[in-house]
Amino acid sequence: MTALSDDVEVREGTYGEKLIAVEPGGAEFIPLGERHGRPLQLFWTWTSPNMEFATVFVGLLGILLGLSFWETVIAVVLGTVLGSITQGILSTSGPRYGVPQMVLSRRGFGYWGNALPAGINSLVAGIGWFAVNSVSGALALNALTHMPEVLCLLIVVALQLVVAFLGHNLIHVFERYAFPVLVVIFLIASVWTFSKAHPGASHQTIPGAFLIELGATFGYAVGWNPYASDYTRYLKPDADKRAIAWWAGLGLLLSCVLLETVGAAAGTIAGVASNANPTAGWTGIFPAWLRDLTLIAIVIGGIAANALNIYSGAISFTAIGFKLPLAARRAIVALGFGAIGFFVGWSGLHNAGSDYNNFLLIIAYWIAPWLAVTFCDMYLRRRQSPAEIEGLLFHKKYTNWAGPVAMLVGGALSIWLFSNQTKYVGLVPKHAGAAGDLTFEVGFVLTAVIYLTWRTIADRSAPAA
Fold it and tell me: Domain 32-461: which topology?
């Protein structure tokens, strides 16, 4: 498979290091003269968005499933380590190719076949995650100020949209200045939580709970993977790849492991896990001053997370291949997703958290097959030059149907056989509950086997160049 043209779509306009300016373009190549930044900024860019209650609740889920504190911590560490390693690896491609992650995804899926993962990610990030975190922030603001929930939601959404609308530079700066505030407040809240926790509390584990929690923690961490190079594509091509992988992976790892472990500890405190409002249940164990500080941090953390979600969701939408003539196309798409996300969040204000575990598992279900195609294709192209690959990324006649077919088949089979959530229970856990939920593990392996087999047969049967 070779490109018929080496034309590359280059982002128009000048942006530089401006903060109060709308970033032009969408999913195009970033000109070399526009490159700036350093790998260290990835540490706070991937730490701040996880300093929020949605992260805490991932650990609390393990206790709700009946796991012990230590069983939950093991699942948290394993799932997060896997997602952090892949985050670091994917982040290194941004400086070399200068394009977002969902444009790089065209290598394994073809130009139009990539509409499958790019479309899913635009919906999950720009609407799904956006609604989840907006509701979390709105409920915290409501508890803090006692303003109507809908008004709180409107305020939170408006703040998130301002950051995402302006774009890349403001996002990095916002995450940087939110970082010390969030870290200090959540560290104090963590110490208080651990002082009240009972790690040895009795528990009654449901069959397969460990694998379900593992899938949820993996889904939370790996949910950032389709955004990875979105926040490194402005770095110069000669930026240190090891530093990029290290800071991106470490920021994700430390923030998730810390707050998810705190969530597990909170679940061992009487009354927290049983509270209908998990946010109120957790912050209710604090004295008034710490409760208010934590609620403020939850609001800031929600904004930090959703600035990335709405930004990358909009980029993924433009990466589908639609040609939008407007210079501010990414920013305008971000506003559209924000408006939709507001109404989705509004509808979920009164049952927030009830389907969160399902949502995390669904993320793992689709990203694992996508990762399988992405990494297998990276391996097969390891000897190709960047110039050859750049030509593929923007050529509309470039096809690689092995990618979307492998992802669809591998994902569908794994869900049919191994899914274990309230919306659907697969064939295996239906008859053997102890199997838990092996969907993302099986989905990754099945997709990899299908993709590599297809590509091997296709490459052998192709005529010599």
Answer: Hydantoin permease (1.10.4160)
